[in-house]
Amino acid sequence: MISIKDISKEFDGVKALDNVTLSVAKGETFGLIGPNGAGKTTLIRILTGQIAPTHGDILMGGETVYPMDSRYRLRVGLVPQEPAFYGRLDAHENLLLLSRLYGVDAKEAAERIDSLLAMAGLTEHASRQARFYSRGMQQRLSLAMGLVHEPELIYMDEPTSGLDPEARSALWELIIRLAAEGRSIFITTHNMQEADRICNRLAILAEGSLREEGTPAEIKGLLGTDRVELQLLDDRTTELDVLCRRLGLTWKMEGDTVIVTGLELPDKLPEIASGLAGSVRNLHYREVTLEDAFLRFMREAER
Fold first, then answer.
1. For residues 162 and 6, is the Cβ–Cβ distance under 8 A?
2. Mean pLDDT of the chain
3. Across the beta sheet with 55-60, what order do the strands follow?
4. How many CA atoms lie within 13 A of 93 on its CB side?
5. Which of 3, 41, 134, 270 could form a disulfide with 23 if both were Cys (CB 3.0 to 4.6 A apart)?
6. Chosen CATH of 225-287 out of 3.30.70, 1.10.3470, 3.10.20, 3.40.1000
7. What is the model's pLDDT at position 251?
8. Which residues in the chain land under pLDDT 50?
9. Fold observed for domain 2-221
């Protein structure tokens, strides 16, 4: 669908992006994750033609494209971090205005707008001025506006930032539904739960450079591991060491807590519990999250 090759951007001699190379396949939801200031929004601004890169190439279907070219802009949509609409227009009027700017046929636009309002859950509110919408409704309107010209690829810049949990979950479901329809989606976020929930593939951006790339499961596998946390009633470290060696596990102490890690931990939990029977005060299995892996990566990157 789209390939980004060696994209760099400098502001007054300071590199905001450093030779970023990645690709998004047709029908894929690709997530770019990283801390604030990593360069995520800068990349989105380049890909949507708001600023030019210092150097690098962007290709769609194997052909070089230029984001400031109107032909490219007809092929992509944008859902910005802050909702973008005319507050004194209602949802229907905002969508109609944008469809005309994109040159959508009037009859086709009418049908498409009705469909988008229904998708966004705004049909009953279509005649209210958008400035009176809740933040979640405003962001759903922004999503609908990004789809009004039926783009091949949708860019979303931290679309759930500032939303409450209910509104965030509703927007996630909309994004998942779009992906199920075969849309290609490029999303930036620093919400690890969001990235894990909706993305097929991820890349970590830190200080303007790509550091890791893979599926959520692969990222978690590279940078984190599931663990068993247990506290012993007495000193059984010798038995624990023998048990872990037999099961192919490793262990270490963190304060008064034993941390056991290794492969196939869920299947080995019964043997761990029975092998230390009578000596365990607390035992807790903790599955690694994407946030665990990301935080570990950032700590290691700072060393």
1. no
2. 89
3. 14-24, 2-11, 55-60, 63-64
4. 11
5. 3
6. 3.30.70
7. 87
8. none
9. Rossmann fold (3.40.50)
